[in-house]
Amino acid sequence: MTTVAIVGGGTMGADIAVAFARARCVTHVVETDPGRRDALGDWLPRELAGAPGPLPVVHAALDALPWGAIDVTVECVPEALALKRGVFAAIERLARPDALLTSNSSSFPISAIAEGLATARRMFGLHFFMPARLVPLVEVVCGPASDVALAGTLVRLMRDSGKVPVLVRRDLPGFLANRLQHALCREAFALIDAGIATPEDVDAAVRFGFGFRYLAAGPMLQRDHAGLEIHCAAAATIYPTLDGSREPARVLREHVERGELGMKTGRGFYAWTPEAIAAERARYEALLRAALDLLGPDTRSG
Q1: Contact between residue 131 and residue 285 where contact means Cβ atoms under 8 Å apart
Q2: Which of 168, 194, 218 is the last residue of a domain?
Q3: CA distance 102 to 205
Q4: Burial of 168 (0-12, 13-18, 19+ CB in 10 A)
Q5: Any domain includes 15
Q6: Do the domain assignments include residue 160?
Q7: Spatial distance between the Cα atoms of 274 and 34, rounded to a whole number of angstroms
Q8: Is residue 300 domain-resident?
Q9: I need a surface site. Which of 110, 116, 129, 185 has the fewest CB within 10 A?
Q10: Are 133 and 47 in contact (CB under 8 A)?
């Protein structure tokens, strides 16, 4: 049995705590905000109703954790580098010498967070995807000082916890999955900027075309299905015409400049009322749960 500490009980931290608790890990959450602690005290029992194993224990401060029992720490504080470095400096003082120390940051490489710390060898990115309690993928990201053998231990822990881990051997910006996502979105935004497709048609092309197939096979396996010579010939024609912009696309910048940030502001590429947001989130999670049911054997094999 593994004992895990989640530092930060926001949306991601709470979801990650649920994922570990469902895997029967002894789970602790540190959340300094009293209101958020109260909310976690209500939400966690509801979300974990019927799940085996103990409920996560919520603490008000790092010093309150049973550090002698903690095997893995997952930092989930807000995306501010100085804040994260301060948290890890405190964890370095408190954690066992053999504990694995990880960050869920999607913005900062673990090498930047670990700079100047004696624990850099056992520090890793451990990047979950929203909603973390449902999405199987977890990226285990190595910095230059990270011990690859310990990364293998973390990969096995994630697999034993029911997740699908991928090992990213160098902490490039965006790691693995977000680099792939942004490559797709750069081309999608360019097509919208050029008037070739609408946001709605881009979404439909992905969801009901190659994205639909990706549930069954990733891009490498899909190309083996179709024939590599076909894709090689297509690449020779398409690659020279793909967008290579080094700046965010015009359509994306203009939405941000107008304060149209998506659901949080009531408008992005789509218009959002509170009722529409609730309905969309319910639809989205229902489809993710259905996908998990379909992918069950694949997620278990990792």
Answers
A1: yes
A2: 168
A3: 36
A4: buried
A5: yes
A6: yes
A7: 26
A8: no
A9: 116
A10: yes
pLDDT above 90 as % of the chain: 96
The CATH number covering residue 24 comes to 3.40.50.720
User: How many residues are present in the chain?
Assistant: 302
Identify which of 182, 153, 203, 196 has the alpha carbon closest to the alpha carbon of residue 249: 182
Q: Find the mean pLDDT for residues 99-120.
A: 96
The whole-number pLDDT of residue 301 equals 43
> Do 212 and 87 share a structural domain?
no
Q: What is the pLDDT of residues 80-109, one digit of tens each?
A: 999 999 999 999 999 999 999 999 999 899
Query: Which two tokens mark 185?
Result: 């979105």
Residues 156 and 208 in one domain: no
Q: Which of 66, 69, 108, 68 is nearest to 88 (CA)?
A: 108
Q: Distance of CA 251 to CAs 194, 200, 247, 269, Å? A: 10, 14, 12, 9
Q: What is the pLDDT of residues 6-27, one digit of tens each?
A: 999 999 999 999 999 999 999 9
pLDDT the model gives residue 296: 82
Amino acid at 136: P
Q: Which domain holds residue 213?
A: 177-248
- Clarify whether residues 206 and 141 are in a common domain: no
Share of the chain above pLDDT 70, in %: 99
